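Exercise 3.2. Students should predict the tertiary structure of the chain below and write it as structure tokens, then compare their answer with the key that follows.

Predict this chain's 3D structure.
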Amino acid sequence: MATEFSFDIVSRVDSMEAKNAINQAQKELQNRYDLKGTKCEIIQEKDDVKLIADDEFLMNQLKDIVFSKLIKRGVDARQIEWGSLEPGAGISVRTDLKFKQGISQDKAKPLIKQIRDKGLKVQAQIQGDEVRVTAKSKDDLQKTIQFVKGLDLDFPVEFVNYR
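Answer key:
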């Protein structure tokens, strides 16, 4: 009886770390002397974060605060996506912050091709927004993990469900 071992390659943001980072940014915003008396706000709604500021200069400062807190909490910069700057109520400006979750089909296909081209004795397939890798040997899976870690991908990866 041949047993199969597997793991999943995923790309996701730890939602608790992101929430903690946004909370820290909100606290810093309240305490920053140079931002007192401005209409700067950070509003968190489930997975979406909205930033509101008086002008573009203050918006850039707000983005810097949020970005630095996210990086300190371990959120990868490649998973942060800023929306375009839009005029808000009155003379303010606003923008959205979204987190990229999952591996899209157009990014998963080249990843699978690279794994196949390496010549490892594994099978890789797309399952929703993740990639499942299976093999008869745990050693082959370990080699695949090391190979994928060494790749220069434009999205961060994690290896989960190792069985």
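Discussion points: The chain has two domains: 5-12+103-160, 15-99. The domain at 5-12+103-160 is CATH 3.30.70.860 (Alpha-Beta Plaits).
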